[in-house]
Amino acid sequence: MRIGMILDASFPPDPRVENEAVTLIQAGHEVFLFCFDFTGDWPQKEEINGIHVRRIQPGKLTYKLSALAYTVPFYHWTLASSLRAFIETNAVEALHIHDMQVAQGVFEVNKQFKLPVTIDLHENRPEIMRYYKHVSSGMGKWLISPKAWKRNEYRFIQEADKVVVVTDEARDYYVEEIPVAPEKFYVVPNTIREDFYTKFHRDETIISQYKDHFTLLYVGDTGYRRGLKTVIEALDLLVPSIKNLKVVIVGDSTYDDTWKQLVAESGHEAHVDLKGWQSFELFQSYILAADIGICPIHRNIHHDTTFANKLFQYMAFGKPIVVSDCPSQANLVRKFNTGLVHKAQDSKGFAAQVLKLYQDKALYEQLSENASQATKNELNWKVLSKQIVKAYEAD
Fold this sequence. Notes:
By secondary structure, the chain is α/β, with parallel strands linked by helices. It has helices at about 15-25, 60-65, 75-90, 105-115, 125-130, 135, 140-145, 145-160, 170-175, 195-200, 205-210, 230-235, 235-240, 255-265, 285-290, 300-305, 310-315, 325-335, 345-360, 360-375, 380-385, 385-395, and strands at about 1-10, 30-35, 45-50, 50-55, 95-100, 115-120, 160-165, 185, 215-220, 245-250, 270-275, 290-295, 320-325, 340.
């Protein structure tokens, strides 16, 4: 089958899109990817890992209006002719929409072609938008409506032939919220490929830097809802018992100055390394250097129904993980017994679980072994990607 994937972003990079496309190609399909070129530096056509990439330049106005996609229809109008040409030129037989921002435009154009449509919800976009600064403040507060996005998300789920989500919890949430059959959903988590933990650059400088420390590692976006305040507040409880404690935070956001100030006020600057954003190629070395991987995110509908990639990245290297009680990640940890769970935004609970792993070496080793084995046997892309192939086997 000739599958037309629609991505309203640049490519590469996008690990989920690439992983799904390559898997479908390996299963015997052809994949054509419609995506954007915001710089004009990319070729309009090229092949990447077997993916037939087709790029358009959307223009600055289209890009700026993307956040208003479900306030005014201009965004979708500007893409209609390009989407139509993409379908016709590449003789597309099925459409696969990545996320919902461009979905309305695709559904409108598809009235002409009547192709089967799969919508791939990378996240609960309407819910997470509520936490974006440009949505909750200034003009965005008046112009961008998460409620309108949610209404349309529900409509697209009902209109699509198939729906791909990242967790069982996401599927269950939508089935409860919308009159839609659970059989319509295919769960494809954002897990890792085997290459992530078998073929990588090992940076000995990073590894040796933390060899004498008991290191907690956080990688990823450092926005407020990611729970780093919980970690910083726990330092008063952790440092007296773990003299060589080091909290390493690899990532950035507009909250970084806030975290620096909180660390300074805590008086524990020697125990925290705010590394800022680092090359993805260094992630494995930071994980190797760590003792525990952490994901203390806050509870909300989005976090409750998604997985952070960092969970699989930590576990791939046998690192026990300490996570907040967002159901999706808590259920994962408990099912495979790969870490410990604390109540979200509870610094005392977080500290207690870290201390438990520090003090109980047998527990630490057991969880470490479980994490490694779970990744190799079940929680890897080769195993979990079978659902995306199954979605197209039914056609």
